[in-house]
Design goal:
The chain is an alpha+beta fold. It has 24 helices and 56 strands. Helix 5 (299-305) crosses helix 6 (323-338) and helix 16 (737-747) packs across helix 22 (996-1015). The longest helix has 22 residues, at 237-258.
Length: 1126
């Protein structure tokens, strides 16, 4: 079931489709402000709808008449500000029955709005899927029931006007234990004793208003400006977490590829019947669907992407549906491309077209509205998808992506057509693309290529390869940009090029220094074309797509088995679009060669012919066992399906379905249409058949591949490898809140007594981090091929000389030209223990857990390493370092800089430090030090754009953490930081105050920065002043003993220090300082920034009264303030 379908209800038929088209014919918006009461137990709905009419439909001088439809069982009770007339009569209702009634509303001159009150029952039972298309879901146009509520455009549950989009605000009441979901933003939610009260608002134009409701358990995860939500009918934390994480991943990828996600949320909603619906900002999936393991990385991202294409940029269906093909390309194809299976996916798409689309079923893409059959899917999804692939191949990735971004930006919440796409792509590419769009969009059919007259001749300077390529399809030739690959004798990699073909017959002439031994035309299926049957493995799709297949029943089977096969055949006669003829094997003497044939049963008379055709695939049958891929499958325990080409007519296929159990045969009837691309299947028999083996036969005889010249029989045929392709976008890692909290829990646990420098507990923390590095797969970067970098150092009284340890893990770079270069990701793991060296006097002897400072930084560093180590191959090395001794004067980072040999200081591109990142809450991620290299501000501005996470960039670094040591050594460095708080360096810095969602945001920003810096070939432009030698501080030097109780605003970049908060009962609060005040002078010394502020405070003593000058509301004020001890 891939990809999931957008809602298309056949119950309303053509009339509904035409109405949908007309609704989308205008970008003018009707605004609905509704008060709604849902009563699921009685299927009732009551609505008060205040409707504002679009300006272009208002009239200052004359009355205005507007037509609308409403569900036939909804009764209009009251009208305010207008007159309503029903267009229905008893006669027309009998002649034209439907789900809705037609009305005309008359507005007086100058009227802009009116109000309707209506109520009634809506309950259409869920019906089984249509018979024509096996991938259809059960459906209902709308229902209000005790199981759940589903209301949509198809329900006509609100007045629908012929000629406009809608925006809305919905104030909905439902039973107290129900959740209500719609598009847009959840503004309000509260409960009374008997009702659940929910308000949704969507200000942007929409083509529908959905309401889904039920008894749900809701899970939410914030990621930047987006809320990911999961609504499950029963609690399932594990399942919810999977969907929340994957939602964040894919939206981050599409943000980067296309632009900001257009909505504030994306929700997975579990439906009470099996569906695969995609709505703006949420998707409605059945209980079985959401638990299929492959959905997370197949159909689910397809529905996420529809919020860009279809629900973000709208489709004008009267001019063709471009959305499904583009979504398939940037979701289904891209996911396969990321798995290095893009070529296989494109071949499957072309195979589906070849198997299901004959001349009588073909049609131009411009006529595609929605899929209703395998043939419509092959054109509307498959051909359109490959059209976008061909555009990308012709224009290049950069131009293709830029055009997509411009298209999205220009048409977001507007309609767009293929013509609009053509205009955008032509403009961005600076190339006229009318011919390309016309031949693929307006024309049915596909090119059919034939390669012939291949010859290589020796010349004075090498070889000349000649060949002829012909388009053999009827009608005009296509203009094609065809890939070609040539394998040369003795060369491992094939030579790749392109042929521009604009006529029926194209001569090829190529020159090489070595002898060509093989030529491949379109070897990776980059061109939409009709495949030759020799390029396609035999598969079930040929049985389901054949025009008049023959199905042969086994006369010798037992009566129950024979009846089961007959029921299967009759089921397929009803549900498949082809006309299947059913016969008993005793009724024919030989297999016809001009038809595709289904053979049923182990006992089928024509089993020997089937086995003979499958011999080339090493399929055998003896002693009631089928042998396939060197495995034996007893017939009593298994059901099998084997396909093979007709030996005397390779255009036709033989398909063998065999089982001895009627129950298994009945299950095969519904299962097999979902395995269409496979050549063979083996199912294990149980209460429910389980697929245990499947695959496609290897294709070895493509007519667009030809060997050139003599081949030694004893020598293996040499095939040149093709250049690997990069996916159009990479899926970013998903960061786990729970895993990061586990790391913080361990490091900040009371048993580690605050991780004081020189303590056994700090050594335990070091061992934990080293073990994580090892499990992640980082290479050891410490002494003697271990993770620890160990040394002894005098750290001051009372500790004296102690042993210190950094922990270092390496992710090696892959570019030899950047050998020795590195990006350092660091976080210190030490803290204050029970008060050394920097605790406040009142807290001496108490455990300082250091959850935020800096277990949070270590947790984010570990989480990034977990995700990138198995996947990335960076150009330059990434060094992960957990530094010790930061609280004692950056001891660990300074030591690293003096001792690193393999990755020397002058080859460190950048250092990214994580310190105090655990309490972000609603603040932006602060990045200190972006002024240390000119590019850093742009890098992190881009990271903010891609992730949707606000970033506050501070050019200066205030020298308070390990990045300062790198900056002093001349290395550009930044610190990622969350917020300042009153628990800094106090026992109150505990895990219960950590913002786990904020950790994910910090990790996302870090990932973007590291990815760019590790793969940027050019060095950064350093913007640091020349460094002078400075004495290294020790714990006894420069520690501040006084406090004012101010919390600085790190986003402020002007002169002075702006106050963000003041601590309770502090000197600042007693002096009535407040948020927004800017400190400009302290104790007679000017304050230019945070660094100078900290420097002045270090010179003062507790109890000292000094003069403080500050600015408030553009007025300069001076006060006296008495400092307290920290």
């Amino acid at each position: 079931m891939k990809p999931l379908v957008r809602i298309c209800f056949t119950l309303l038929g053509i009339l509904f489709c035409l109405f949908s088209m007309s609704v989308l014919a205008s970008t003018e918006t009707f605004h609905h402000q509704m008060h709604i009461v849902l009563s699921p137990d009685t299927s009732e709905i009551r609505v008060k709808d205040h409707i504002t009419v679009p300006e272009n439909m208002q009239n200052q001088k004359a009355s205005v008449k507007l037509d609308f439809i409403l569900h036939q069982d909804l009764v209009i009770k009251e009208v305010q500000g207008a007159k309503i007339e029903s267009q229905e009569t008893n006669t027309t209702a009998r002649l034209h029955p439907s789900l809705f009634k037609r009305y005309t509303v008359t507005l007086s001159p100058q009227a802009k709005d009116f109000t309707l009150q209506f109520q009634g029952k809506i309950h259409h039972p869920v019906q089984q899927p249509g018979e024509e298309y096996a991938r259809s879901f059960s459906y209902t146009p709308g229902t209000i029931s005790s199981e759940g509520v589903f209301l949509a455009n198809s329900t006509a549950w609100y007045p629908q006007f012929n000629g406009g989009l809608v925006s809305f605000k919905l104030d909905i009441q439902a039973p107290v234990d129900w959740h209500i979901i719609s598009q847009g933003v959840l503004l309000q939610e509260h409960q009374s004793d008997s009702m659940q009260h929910t308000v949704w608002e969507e200000k942007y134009p929409q083509d529908d208003i959905y309401i889904v409701a039920g008894r749900y358990q809701r899970y939410t995860q914030s990621s930047g400006q987006l809320d990911a939500m999961v609504y499950l009918r029963n609690p399932d934390v594990t399942l919810a977490r999977k969907y929340l994480d994957v939602t964040a991943q894919y939206i981050a990828m599409y943000n980067k590829l296309l632009g900001p996600y257009p909505y504030r949320k994306f929700a997975l909603v579990e439906n009470f019947w099996e569906t695969g619906y995609g709505m703006p900002s949420f998707t409605l999936l059945g209980s079985k669907v959401i638990r299929l393991p492959f959905i997370l990385h197949s159909s689910y991202p397809h529905e996420i992407l529809h919020n860009y294409w279809g629900n973000g940029v709208f489709v004008d269906y009267t001019q063709g549906n471009w959305s499904e093909g583009l979504t398939a390309y940037l979701a289904d194809h891209l996911i396969n491309e990321q798995k290095n299976k893009g070529e296989e996916y494109r071949r499957d798409v072309l195979q589906k077209y070849a198997d299901f689309v004959g001349k009588e079923k073909d049609f131009p893409i411009a006529q595609f509205v929605s899929r209703h059959s395998a043939s419509s899917e092959a054109v509307g999804y498959g051909k359109t998808m490959l059209f976008f692939h061909m555009l990308r191949q012709e224009l290049g990735d950069k131009t293709f992506v830029n055009a997509l971004r411009k298209f999205y930006q220009q048409f977001k919440f507007k309609q767009a057509t293929f013509k609009d796409l053509q205009t955008i792509f032509s403009t961005v590419a600076d190339k006229e693309l009318a011919q390309s769009f016309t031949q693929w969009i307006e024309r049915s059919g596909a090119p059919d290529l034939k390669l012939s007259h291949v010859e290589a001749k020796r010349t004075n300077d090498g070889y000349t390869l000649t060949a002829q390529l012909e388009q053999v399809q009827p009608g005009q030739p296509y203009q094609l940009h065809i890939p070609i690959a040539v394998t040369l004798e003795g060369k491992n990699q094939a030579i790749q090029s392109h042929i521009d073909m604009q006529q029926k017959v194209q001569a090829i002439q190529l020159h090489f220094h070595a002898r060509p031994v093989r030529i491949d035309i379109d070897p990776q299926f980059d061109i939409f074309r009709r495949l030759d049957n020799r390029e396609i493995p035999a598969a079930l799709s040929q049985g389901f797509g054949a025009e008049k297949p023959l199905l042969i029943l086994p006369t010798q089977a037992s009566q129950p088995v024979l009846q089961a096969y007959r029921s299967l055949a009759e089921n397929w006669q009803k549900t498949q679009s082809n006309a299947i003829e059913i016969v008993l094997d005793e009724a024919i003497t030989e297999l016809p060669t001009n038809r595709t044939i289904w053979m049923m049963g182990w006992q089928n008379k024509f089993r020997p012919e089937m086995l003979a055709a499958a011999t080339q695939h090493s399929v055998t049958y003896e002693s009631s066992k089928l042998k396939l891929d060197q495995q034996n499958y007893p017939t009593t325990e298994h059901a099998v399906v084997i396909t093979a080409r007709q030996p005397r007519n390779s255009d036709k296929t033989l398909l063998w379905v065999a089982s001895d159990h009627p129950q298994s045969i009945a299950q095969l009837a519904s299962k097999l249409p979902h395995y269409r691309k496979y050549s063979y299947l083996v199912f294990k028999r149980d209460d429910e058949l389980t697929n245990i083996h499947k695959g496609q036969w290897t294709v070895t005889q493509s007519p667009l591949t030809q060997w050139i010249g003599p081949q030694e029989a004893t020598q293996p045929q040499h095939i040149g490898t093709l250049k690997p392709r990069r996916a159009l976008a990479e899926l970013p890692p998903v960061f786990s809140e729970s895993r990061m909290l586990e790391d913080i829990q361990y490091l900040a646990d009371e048993s580690l007594k605050g991780r004081e420098l020189g303590s056994p507990e700090l050594d335990i923390a070091a061992s934990y981090i080293a073990k994580q590095f090892q499990q992640i797969g980082l290479l050891p970067g410490g002494d003697e091929n271990g993770y620890f970098q160990t040394w002894q150092q005098l750290v001051g009284e009372p500790k004296g000389t102690i042993i210190l340890r950094n922990i270092i893990g390496i992710m090696p770079g892959t570019n030899p030209q950047l050998a020795g270069q590195s990006v350092v990701v660091g976080a210190h793991y030490d803290h204050l223990g029970t008060g050394w060296p920097d605790a406040r006097a009142a807290n001496q002897g108490k455990i300082h857990s250091g959850a935020d400072d800096n277990a949070s930084g270590v947790a984010v560093m570990l989480e990034l390493a977990r995700h990138i180590a198995p996947k990335w191959q960076p150009e330059r090395s990434i060094i992960f370092v957990a530094f010790t001794g930061e609280e004692a004067g950056l001891l660990g980072s300074r030591h690293y800089l003096t001792q690193t040999k393999k990755y020397p200081v002058d080859k460190i591109t950048t250092m990214l430090n994580l310190d105090t990142v655990g309490r972000l809450n609603n603040s932006p991620v602060t990045v200190f030090g972006t002024g240390s290299a000119r590019e850093l501000v742009h890098i992190f501005r881009g990271a903010s754009f891609v992730t949707g996470i606000p970033v506050n960039m501070v050019p200066n670094d205030f020298g308070s953490s390990d990045q300062a040591a790198f900056i002093q050594a001349g290395v550009p460095a930044i610190q990622l930081f969350a917020t300042a708080h009153e628990d800094y360096h106090t026992p109150g810095d505990t895990i219960d105050k950590i913002d786990s969602a904020g950790l994910v945001k910090v990790a996302a920003i870090l990932k973007e920065g590291v990815e760019y810096l590790a793969n940027r070939i050019e060095p950064l432009t350093i913007a640091l002043p020349s460094q002078t030698s400075e004495p290294k501080p020790t714990p006894s030097q420069g520690k501040r003993k006084t406090s004012l109780g101010t919390v600085p605003d790190f986003s402020y970049s002007g002169p002075g220090v702006r106050i963000d908060d003041v601590l309770q009962d502090s000197p600042a609060q007693l002096a009535q300082l407040q948020k927004g005040d800017i400190v400009s002078k302290l104790a007679g010394q000017s304050i230019s920034d945070l660094a100078s502020y900290a420097a002045v405070l270090k010179t003062l003593t507790p109890g000292q009264t000094v003069e403080l000058q500050y600015q408030r509301d553009n007025q300069l004020k001076t006060i006296e303030i008495t400092l307290t001890e920290r």
